[in-house]
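Recap from last week: sequence in, structure out.
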Amino acid sequence: MQCGEIVRTPKLIHYDKANHVLIMEDVGQLLSLKEWMQPEVDRTMAQTIGQTLGSYLAGIHNITQQDKRLLADFDGNGTARQLSSKLYFGTLVERAARFGHTDSFIGDAAKVGEYEVLYSYDVLTLGDFWTGNILVSGTSQEDIRLFVIDLELSKPGTAEFDIGQMAAEMYCLATFRNHANDQSLAMLEAFLVAYKATRKVTVDAAKVAVRLGSHWLVIMPMAWAAEATPDQIRTATFEGRELARMGWERDTAALRSTVLDPLL
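Predicted structure tokens:
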């Protein structure tokens, strides 16, 4: 089964341009991928999902790479640029400091991250591409279907932004979801391998590491508080800090010992 047969957005039924209203297909009461990834999930199915999402994202980035006309259509989404830059990088220094991480490179990485979100024009980024915005339908390899939702933050940007966000949340599943570690790591590896294999240009793994590490310092402590203990979260922020450092320093040798090795 091809990637396009497994994953898609809900179908557009009607768009009222004057009133900025979209009417889209109702795909039903489905679990998000974050909810769906439980210990009973088959490892092979988790790999299929990772591979499908990696190919899907790389395909979007391939199609939109340097497509000035298409990117211009989304460039007016200034609100999305402002929200993403502030949420993921504008608060990075403050949130990292709450866990005792006050290294100077964090501030430097935050400034570069903010700038890239505000001004980069490489590809169309989905903007909020993570496990909570993937709905899962089906119970077997044959009937699995994925729906990508919540595309309001789509905008021109860097490919590494989207990759890092999904990788960060898949890694959270592997770290905090009890007894689903093996499946989640398999899904993450398949996602990265498929993205690299499908992408027509080389992705910057160092930038992905900064994005992933920043996510673990800013978003993870809040988003996973219900499933992880304070000690687990604090420990994870040290790993997030290290990933961000490796990326910022472009320490390729160190990155090869992390979950981002498939991108190198």
